[in-house]
Amino acid sequence: MIDLSLAGLLGATIGLVVAALVYAPLGRWIERRVRARQPVETVEERRTLTAELGLLRRVILAIDMLVFAGFGYWVGQVLAG
Asked: Which of 26, 31, 35, 68 has the highest CB neighbour count under 10 A?
């Protein structure tokens, strides 16, 4: 059976809130960096870049949620004793 503590779940929830707050600025920063490195000249390049940036945003969100939720759960467990 999985042993989940209330403190750990509260920490994970707080971690998800932090992840949501960090996602937008981090996503914009990474998107600006990618756009600066890849000049877009044709319509096809623009479509490809838009599709790649959409995928990149989803990857950033998934990693962001996993890291912050995991860290929040760990902090909750440690603080609960």
From this structure: 68
Q: What total of structural domains would you count in the chain?
A: 1
67 three-state secondary structure: helix
The CB density around residue 29, as the number of other CB atoms within 10 Å, is 10
pTM, two decimal places = 0.79
Instruction: Tell me whether residue 14 is in a domain.
Output: yes
Whether 30 maps to a domain, the answer reads yes
In a domain, 1, yes or no: no
Domain containing residue 47 = 6-80
